[in-house]
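re: that chain from earlier
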Amino acid sequence: MQVTVDGRKAALVAIDIQNKFYTVTEGLRRSVDLHMDMMNRALDLFHDTGSPVILVFYDAMNSCTSDAMDDPEALVEGLRAHESDARVHKESMNSFHGTDLLDRIRESGAECVVLMGLVAHMCVLSTYFAAYDAGLPAFMLEGALSATDEENVAHVEAICRTVDIDSLRESAE
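^ sequence. v structure.
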């Protein structure tokens, strides 16, 4: 069975869950730590059901990133990504701009996207609106967004369509 939202096959898009962001501010580090369990629960659900997972990597280094760790490009330790997950590389906030993300989603047969990752009010929100511009319904996964402070997470969840992990699990049964 596949994960669906409103009857549409969903792809999980995990945005920028990389060391280079994890180490930028103490607030972002706390937020990632707070939401890592939900991110992993979503990854486990999509992997267990054979539903598509796409990992997005921000390739550029700039004032919003940190090279404080041994491997700033790597995924944050503890994230349960699989080698078989599709990977998309980007150089702007919008994960669709200049990438093959839309093609990867369409090739997977997905008809909507569930977004998670960081930073909620920057790259994740930009990708959310870009999905709609591409004609693709998008949903933020409640409890799986991270930001420089939790108030920003709450703001993003308040203005976007959201879905919770229990609904996703029920859809796949």
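The longest strand covers residues 138-146.
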